[in-house]
Amino acid sequence: MIRIAFLIRSLGHGGAERQLATLVKALDRDRFDVTVITFYSAGHFEDELAESNIRLISLRKRGRWDVLGFLWRLIGELKRLRPEILHSYLVEPNLVAVLLKPLFRFTKVVWGIRASNMNLKHYDWFTRLNFRLQSSASRFADLIIANSEAGREYHLAHGFPAQKCIVIHGAVDTERFKPDQESGRALRAAWGITDAVLIGLVGRLDPVKDHATFLKAAALISLRESELWFVCVGNGPEEYEASLRRLADEHRISQRVIWAGARDDMPAVYNALDVACSSSSSEGFPNTIAEAMACGVPCVVTDVGDSALLVGDTGIIVPPNDPQALAQALAECITMPASMRGNPRSRIEERFAVSQLVNNTTAALNAVTKVESIRSSERLV
User: For an engineered disulfide with 254, which of 81, 125, 248, 276 has Cβ 3.0 to 4.6 Å away?
Assistant: First the structure.
């Protein structure tokens, strides 16, 4: 049995958090002894993992500058667990994992990366510095798993070692995310929507998700279609949310936009939508679009990351940062007969099932531990 510790900042709302939860619940317990270690306590997926009897450890980090105590607690937990693999997710956990590598010589460090074509100008100096440090430290990781082809290429362009980078696409739990008209109708009623068309964008309030383009497209399409509502599901910094609300006011659509915040009932959210939209200027593998597809919802996405690969012929792909093109695609998707659309749920079941994620990850983790076993045997000869 392989002892594996996953390291992530938190188990709050987010694509990386969802993918980690999906993966660890599905890993074969006879082959892997799994522990999930978080920097911070609490989070949306904690209860879900606890119900699946996944071992959870919080390091109770108190903030950005709680470093020494946090590292001391992490070192103590790793000494107790003695994992053969430390699998970190995202920039800060990746950096921490390689920082501790000299103390755990027999632990293989596996990174999980998700970004693709990020404009770092949108982020603070600390985020930019950490990304540069991650690029420099990437040669010390034993394996790097990107969740998209675009993400791998982006990181290779920033100095990541090609021979260590592989792609394993995300996956969707189709038992959880599935068509359910009743839950969708109930949520629409709670939002005060009956017969109107509802278009939704699910994602954190972050410049990379480009809600501004979505709102501008919403304003354009509202000039032609009167019975339209829009919902933005996700949270973010108060100042940024306020700027988006002001933009909706400026375009005179604030009465048609629901700001739903982060929600725990995501299957119901997707089933409430007539169209799901991703207006992102950068993506890796957009989990929210995959989840909407699993619920049978047609999608309109920008051509960034692996969004086009995910949607295929079941939705509409448009250039990023183009409100006019996005508005036209949304209008087309609304009026397109169901018989002319592909089947988004079938595409997810065929190409992005959890079994594929588990099989591909298991093979990669087995391979990285076998390398060390082979080297150890060679030293004994």
Answer: 248
State how far the Cα of 203 lies from the Cα of 289, in Å rounded to an integer: 10
- DSSP states of 251-272 as a string? TT-GGGEEEEES-S-HHHHHHH
- Biggest alpha carbon distance in the chain? 77
Q: What does the pLDDT read at residue 379?
A: 33
Number of Cβ within a 10 Å radius of residue 90? 21
Look at residues 219, 202, 205 and name the one whose alpha carbon lies nearest to residue 256: 219
User: How far is Cα 311 from Cα 300, in angstroms, rounded to an integer?
Assistant: 8
What pLDDT score does 376 carry? Answer: 38
Tokens at 196, concatenated: 């109107």
What is the separation, in whole angstroms, between the first and last Cα of the chain? 25
d(CA 131, CA 135): 6
pLDDT number for residue 364:
95
Cβ-Cβ contacts under 8 Å for 148 (sequence gap 6 or more): 114, 116, 167, 169, 283, 284, 285, 305, 306
pLDDT at 208: 92
pLDDT at res. 368: 92
CB proximity list for 32: less than 8 A, separation 6 or greater: 1, 2, 3, 4, 362, 365
Helix (H, G, I), strand (E, B) or coil at 67: coil
Show the low-confidence residues of the chain (pLDDT under 50): 372-381
Would you tell me the crossing angle of helices 91-99 and 68-81 to the nearest 10 degrees?
Answer: 70
* The predicted structure's pLDDT at residue 232: 98
Helix boundaries (H) for the chain: 15-26, 46-51, 68-81, 91-99, 125-137, 149-157, 181-190, 211-222, 238-250, 266-272, 287-294, 307-311, 323-335, 344-351, 354-380
